[in-house]
Specification:
Elements: E1 5-6, E2 12-16, H1 19-22, H2 35-40, H3 62-72, E3 76-80, H4 83-86, H5 98-113, E4 117-121, H6 129-135, H7 143-158, E5 164-169, H8 171-179, H9 194-221, E6 224-230, E7 233-236, H10 242-265, H11 270-282, H12 295-301, E8 308-311, E9 315-320, H13 331-334, E10 337-340, H14 358-370, E11 376-380, H15 395-413, E12 418-424, E13 443-445, E14 454-456, H16 458-469, E15 471-472, H17 475-534
Parallel strand pairs: 2-3, 2-12, 3-4, 4-5, 5-6, 6-8, 7-9, 8-11, 11-12
Antiparallel strand pairs: 1-15, 9-10, 13-14
Helix pairs in contact: 7-9, 8-9, 14-15, 15-16, 16-17
GO molecular function: beta-glucosidase activity; galactosylceramidase activity; glucosylceramidase activity
Protein name: Cytosolic beta-glucosidase
Family: Belongs to the glycosyl hydrolase 1 family. Klotho subfamily.
């Protein structure tokens, strides 16, 4: 049932995005190539071979986008820094890019001038390509020191103003999609081992960066360092079945627990160690494919998060499923489970993203119980659409935001320590291997228009009302928000249609007129030649 009420005073409301997905300017002003530049430039890696080379042109539109943030009346903006933009090869001793550093200084200053708090992620997947080519990226332990140098440069240059740092955004996807399935950059399919090895190095890197901040910068800068972990909720198909309950527990532990358990409890979840260890032994391997932490490493890693960032999008029903021993080893067969969805769950966008708000409250309560009720910021939560024509009256996104934010309110009443919410995302943007086919933005971008204008969807008006009211005051007011949002989007839609027509006419003018003009010249030349021949 829907719960009417308001959030505590001081609750933070924001939106987020990431560097590669929005900035563009992939090779401008001294920026080095990232693994995503290299990956997208290889044919067949991304839907329709699209790239983030120009993305939303966010590099050139900082002031415009900050106006959108002001329009939304958010408290914070979650952005990521592109490592190769400020350190082109990823190696501090080799080269720093002052223009890249200046770009982020200007962005941070502009946010603060407009009373918007920057929450900064150091890594949203765009590893410098040089580090991938030279060392194999996150498969190599040397990344720990290179990343730590990069993080310390960021603390030095921006830490006087940035007080909320995220080391890694969704490291699960970095490890699993980058080094297991190869769906994401760098596109490696190191089945059964690659993801575990990458994650192992990422966890150790996170801990090193936290200790660097703690020892060198905290006293002076008084900021916080955390990590952002993305996880769905796993619900047992049959809650009365112990095997289904165990399978649902494994689902969470192999997603969230993989990273959260070492940071909050000092080691990988027991169930991960048991399952991967047993499967490795059945394959005849002498050691587990899941690496181990030494006693010293466990102590060093435990407690290295001042807050936990949580990204959450959807839920699955889970049941036990045994995979045969002879099958090729894989992260996906290690946990012996199958995922199901309820066909009645709304899924207006891509087929992986079902709207199941109640799963969010359960996930937040799980975190409270498992990890000692840590300080939580929701760092990513949102709904995408896949329809190709502009969808400004995004009724489904309004329902999604309303439902999921309401479950956070219920979780707060359960005693969960949530301090802020970040809607994902500010803009329609490049969605990794899906290109521009999925749209998460509160603002629509017309990518066919060279100026890439931004248009507010109905969800902008609705989210703005939630922020202003700090929650859901009463049924009548909340219902009124919905009607106003839908009325506003209808007017914006007409504006977009008119702009699209003008853009189309400009394209016709730019392409057709020069072509006709060129043809006329060619025909004139041919006629002139014929004429001269006849009269010679």
């Amino acid at each position: 049932s829907f719960y009417y009420g308001t959030f505590p005073a001081g609750f933070l409301w924001g939106v987020g995005s990431s560097a590669y997905q929005t900035e563009g300017a992939w090779d401008k002003d001294g920026k080095g190539p990232s693994i995503w530049d290299a990956f997208t430039h290889r044919k067949g890696k991304v839907l329709r071979n699209e790239t983030g080379d120009s993305a939303c042109d966010g590099y050139y539109k900082v002031k415009d986008d900050i106006q959108l943030l002001k329009e939304l009346k958010v408290n914070h903006y979650l952005l990521s820094i592109s490592w190769p933009r400020i350190m082109p090869t990823g190696i501090k001793a080799e080269q720093l890019n002052e223009k890249g550093i200046q770009f982020y200084n200007d962005t941070i200053n502009s946010l603060l001038e407009n009373n918007i708090t920057p929450i900064v992620s150091l890594y949203h997947w765009d590893l410098p390509q040089v580090l991938q080519e030279k060392y194999g990226g996150w498969q190599n332990i040397s990344m720990i020191n290179y990343f730590n140098d990069y993080a310390n440069l960021c603390f030095e240059k921006f830490g006087d103003r940035v007080k909320h740092w995220i080391t890694f955004s969704n490291p699960w996807a970095v490890a699993e999609k980058g080094y297991e399935t190869g769906e994401h950059a760098p596109g490696l399919k190191l089945g059964g081992c690659g993801a575990y090895k990458a994650a192992h190095h990422i966890i150790k890197t996170h801990a090193k960066v936290w200790h660097s901040y703690n020892n060198t910068w905290r006293r002076e800068q008084r900021g916080m360092v955390g990590i952002s972990l993305t996880s769905g909720w796993g619900e047992p198909v049959d809650p009365h079945s112990q095997t289904d309950r165990d399978a649902a527990e494994r689902y969470i532990q192999f997603h969230l627990g993989w990273f959260a358990n070492p940071i909050y409890r000092g080691d990988y979840p027991e169930v991960m160690k048991n399952y991967v260890g047993r499967k490795s032994a059945q394959q005849g391997l002498g050691t587990s494919r899941l690496p181990t932490f030494s006693v010293q490493e466990k102590t060093y890693i435990k407690g290295t998060s001042d807050f936990l960032g949580i990204g959450h999008f959807t839920t699955r029903y889970v049941l036990q499923r045994n995979f045969p021993f002879l099958q090729v080893s894989s992260y996906h067969t290690d946990h012996d489970l199958a995922e199901l969805v309820d066909p009645d769950w709304p899924a207006p966008g891509p087929k992986w993203l079902y709207s199941v708000p109640w799963g969010f409250r359960r996930l937040l309560n799980f975190i409270k119980t498992q990890y000692g009720n840590p300080l939580i910021y929701v760092t990513e939560n949102g709904m995408s659409e896949t329809v190709q024509c502009p969808q400004l009256c995004d009724e489904w996104r309004i329902q999604y935001l309303k439902g999921y934010i309401n479950e956070i309110l219920k979780a707060l009443n359960d005693g969960v320590n949530v301090k802020g919410y970040t809607a994902w995302s500010l803009l329609d943007k490049f969605e990794w291997n899906k290109g521009f086919s999925e749209r998460f933005g509160l603002y629509h971008i017309d990518f066919k228009n060279k100026n890439k204008p931004r248009y507010p969807k109905a969800s902008v008006d609705y989210y703005k009302k939630i922020i202003s009211a700090n929650g859901f005051p009463n049924p009548r007011e909340v219902e009124n928000w919905h009607q106003k949002a839908m009325d506003t989007c209808s007017a914006t839609h007409q504006h977009l249609a008119a702009d699209s027509l003008i853009t189309h006419m400009e394209m016709v003018t730019e392409i057709v007129l020069p072509t006709v003009f060129t043809l006329c010249i060619l025909i004139s030349i041919v006629l002139l030649i014929v004429y001269l021949r006849n009269h010679s």
